[in-house]
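Sat 14:20. Reprocessing the chain from the morning session after the first attempt stalled halfway. Input below, unchanged.
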Amino acid sequence: LLFSNKLTYYYSHRVVSPRKNKYVLSRSYNGEWLHVRQLDATYESAERVEYMRQYVNPASGWYKNEASIQHDVDGNIFKSSAIEKLFLLAAIKFATRDPFGMGIEYEAGKPGWNAALNGISSMLGSGLPETYELKLLLQYIHDAMLKFSRSITVPKELSVLIEKISTALEELGDNEHIPKHDSDGRIKVPQPLFLYWDAVATAREEYRSEIALFSGQTHQYSSEDVAKLTMRWLKQIDLGIDRAHLIGSHGHVQNAAAVITPTYFSYNVTKWELTGERNGKGHPFCIAKEMVVGKFPLFLEGVARVLKTMDKKQAATLYEHVKQSGLRDKELKMYTLSSSLVGQSYDMGRMMGFSPGWLENQSVWMDQSYKYYLELIKKGMFDQFFEEMRTGMLPFIDGQKYGRSVMECSSFIASSAFEDPHMRGRGVLARLSGSAAEFLSIWKLMFIGETLFQLNERGELEMQLVPSLPSWLFRENELVQSPADKKYVIRFKLFTSINVAYFVTTPKDLFRVKPSRYTIGLRDGSVISVETISSTLAANIRKVVFIDYIHAYF
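Finished this time. Tokens:
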């Protein structure tokens, strides 16, 4: 899957604009000062549109599938393996880090997950959540290359970009470049970091200008080459994350040793040069020469993402700090999308147009809250997770206060910051919510475990139920017929068809505990008792139709 299967690349008619065509000088939203903004971040490429027209179906007038697939200059469809595409993605993301090397720049006109922060791109904004995901991706690529020890082949254009990145890194060195306040209280981007950012951003722009079509030439990297590159990039990412922790978040008092991760940053250009050109609205284009970093209040997105990179001890420390922070709604005992946004610039985006506690302005955004809870149970923080579950997750919350069925996820819950006390705690369905996806992932970890089916050392299929359930979810078994029967039970359906029951003698926590034995009832009426589920029996369970019930005993 990683190395052998070849995949195509998506071909878009829109391209990210170079900085010289999107950094403009304009007045602030209140008209009081001049600042540099990033506008018209993408453009439609006439060259690409013209190329795609050759793939229009004359009968229907619609584009054929090939129009959206990357070709080389000879008209061949360019393909790469999954690991090669992941490496290309990681390289581009690494080349898109912000001037302090902290977040990934929102250079294409939109933010990441938080769509209501739709103004942050114009503020030369960046996001640390994407950096945490990049760190995980680079670690995965590094480990996969060393595990399988196979070379990869990438477009020649990418290897040129990587060489320019390496040259810029050599000039930058491994200095920490600790953020410092100047005499005006601002945190200026150090000159070495700015020069590195400018050189790599220029290289990235040159790369994009050369790949309207790939040349067809390729470059091969050995597994050792890729491992060295990814380790070097990971080191730089960690330095950037350390700087982010030192800079912190607006309105949150913290120290470097016990930090709640910031989520977003902006950059204010303090020195620029005009190019002499203007955009379609008359704004003069300019080139950034010096910058200072801006910070935002706390956002739950950063916390949920950074947990993926932490061990259990680190996650537990972070959890305790988050619980005491402005992200915690102490009245509802839930977590809000952000801490207070009072005093923030309207340049941030539409979230500033909402009342505090409503929509994306400091409300309990269920999708993001569930993402946070999901990471808690993934980390094995069961006491903390189930404590939060009883106040922050359906169906355990007060249905009268929620105002709708507790079987139905809302987009958001009006938080205690909302001005109308009668609306606090009420669910609002402004649009579809992604909460159900996180809830299903949580349910799976609770009732089934991380991996239901796997291959043993002999290559044979095995099945193992490893639940993570608290004692208070168990109920008395109404079917007890003798003292030997287990007295407490919890039931669920596997694959919507197989009745599964967990039995215990007395209520107790089952946190990643394997059953001591199973009783499996088949639809033909026969019953099988086993200590482990392997081979044919596991395969039949996966086929579903042969199995009536599974009883697991602890």
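The chain has 13 helices and 29 strands.
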